[in-house]
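Annotated sample (chain length 104).
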Amino acid sequence: MSGNIPTVVSDMAKSIIERNGMDYVGYNFSDNSITFTVYADNKDKCVYVASLIRRETSGPVRSLFKELWSMPSLWTNRALITKNAFSNKTQDDVNRFLSTIKSR
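Output written by the structure step:
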């Protein structure tokens, strides 16, 4: 498979986000996480779209990258939804959230 996992996941997520009327800003990929930045009207819509991203990307991404089948899950059961993704305080919240996620 050509391409890389962050790019493929980001492209899939972008499609889901835009299909649901939200503005996709971009993503940040680190060693053990991918964070999407979007503009949305409300938190409930973000929670809903986060669940769609988890549900609609897991199988297709694993099909494209066979080595991911050895992982019990590609996504955590939780999503962090913040009000202002561009503040330093929010980045601290994201980092704290990511440090509490246990590997499965």
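Annotation: DSSP finds three helices and two strands in the chain.
Annotation: The radius of gyration is 14 Å.
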